[in-house]
Amino acid sequence: MMAPSTEHDVAIVGAGPVGLLLAGLLGQLGFRVLIVDKRLVSPAQSQAIGITPPSLEILSRLGLDADFIRLGVPIRDCRVHGQRGYLGCVSFRDLPGPYRHILSLPQQLNVRLLEEKLTDFPGVTLRRGVEITAVEQAPDKVTLHGTDRLITAKWVIACDGHRSRLRNLLKLRTTGGDYPCHFVMGDFTDRSGLKEEAHLFFTAQGAVESFPLPDGKRRWIVQSPGPLPDAPNGFISRTVKQRTGLELSDEDQLNRGHFTPRWMHCAPYHSGRVILCGDAAHLMSPIGGQGMNTGWADAEFVAEMLCAIEHQHQPAAPLLTAYHRYRRVASRSATRRAAIGMWLGTRTGFFSSWWRDFFLTNVLFKGPLTRRLGPHFAMLTIPYRTVKQLPVFLKFKLTALNGRRPSPDFSPERTRKTHAHPRR
Ligand SMILES: Cc1cc2nc3c(=O)[nH]c(=O)nc-3n(C[C@H](O)[C@H](O)[C@H](O)COP(=O)(O)OP(=O)(O)OC[C@H]3O[C@@H](n4cnc5c(N)ncnc54)[C@H](O)[C@@H]3O)c2cc1C
Predict the structure, then answer these.
(1) N vs C: which end of the chain shows fewer Cβ within 10 Å?
(2) Do 376 and 309 share a domain, yes or no?
(3) 56-59 contacts: CB < 8 A, separation 24 or more?
(4) What does the DSSP assignment read for 53-80?
(5) Which residues does a 6 A CB cutoff place in the pocket of ligand 1?
(6) For residue range 109-128, what is the model confidence (pLDDT) as tens digits?
């Protein structure tokens, strides 16, 4: 017999980067939050590394941007090479705003920082080893069936990743598919001399991408001819040598992974009192590094929206519709960009690489488009990338009204903390 647990304002399913950030934002707004994850520990294998300026802005709400920057590597330049050699540079040095770089920080480190931050908020509880297997909705609450308990909450946020159990239980419609390309990746002790720059090599045999990591490491991602779950030892170093001429030592390889990029969109992003956030709502190619960043922007919207609904008593239905509408536009834009960038970089064969070199040299790296590349890849041109970029009427509902004096039934310990936006 399962014992019912105490009720929570919000239950978050999934303590990946999106669920953890959302728990922190809601904790800061005074919500009683339970966040559960079926895993006892977060995975050691790193996925996301690239953190864009809009995400650093969102993280600054929790005062975490400085910690992230202290542990990460700021990538200020991304150098692009083609079949004929060096083609041009995407520079982030002139980005508007306080963050003039893309930050490289492995996902397991950002998850650790986000998890540690939760201890600042007494209203937030993280429970690991709890798998959600069923969901029941009532007009005023949601009940989740966890491994050993029932969890009731006014709102449930599904941050349970691209295979989302909650999304499937609610029978929400999805569209999606695989992209026709495959990658093998590995982190290496870095002896390349490429410093803090990212390098992209688009060659006739396939793409190679290389990004600096903290602690003197570097990630190498190579396009493979087919799915290679068991890539032989030395595959990455041999492929890098063949396509770029750079020597990597197999002894320096620290881990290995592979992936076939997929895309997926869910519609709508909510059902009753369950709201989807992050990869549960949308999946995009990791080549482009935008999935987690897009999920963090969902989390910011959801935190403000729940504050407007619960603390300012605004009607839920129009805000939920707006969440679906605006976050879908943002995630589709990010998905499209990631797909186009990946398509351009992964064309193989002599003719395709000649054409690509010509296009990059004469169109993208020449003339007025060059200046737009930095903001484009830093996600500064994604529509509605943070709550600040929403249309004025919605921003007013979400932020200006939320910032008003609390209504009478607003308990004192729920007062929103103010936080300085860092300027450097
Ligand atoms: C190789 C690779 C590189 C990437 N690089 C980047 C990058 O540079 N930048 C970027 O922005 N994005 C990148 N991404 C995408 C990024 O990793 C994802 O978008 C991000 O992890 C999504 O976070 P999430 O919290 O939504 O889901 P997840 O990270 O998938 O977390 C979901 C959590 O839910 C838990 N869970 C699932 N089901 C249940 C259940 N029933 N009950 C309880 N818990 C459950 C899981 O255990 C998991 O901890 C990359 C992805 C890959 C594969």
Answers:
(1) N
(2) yes
(3) 56/98, 56/99, 56/103, 57/97, 57/99, 57/386, 57/388, 57/421, 58/21, 58/296, 58/297, 58/299, 58/300, 58/386, 59/21, 59/296
(4) HHHHHHHHTTT-HHHHHHHSEEE-EEEE
(5) 13-19, 36-39, 47-50, 107, 131-132, 159-161, 165, 259, 278-279, 286, 289-293, 295
(6) 999 999 999 999 999 999 99
Q: Is the domain of 126 the same as that of 223?
A: no
* Ligand 1 atom, smallest distance to 277 CA: 26
Which residue range forms the structural domain that includes residue 248?
182-259
Mutate which of 105, 107, 262 for ligand 1 pocket (most atoms within 8 A of beta carbon): 107
Comparing 204 with 7, the larger pLDDT belongs to 204
Region 259-275: mean pLDDT is 97
Specify if 78 maps to a domain: no
Residue among 367, 412, 293, 386 nearest 18 (CA): 293
Q: In the chain, how many domains are there?
A: 2
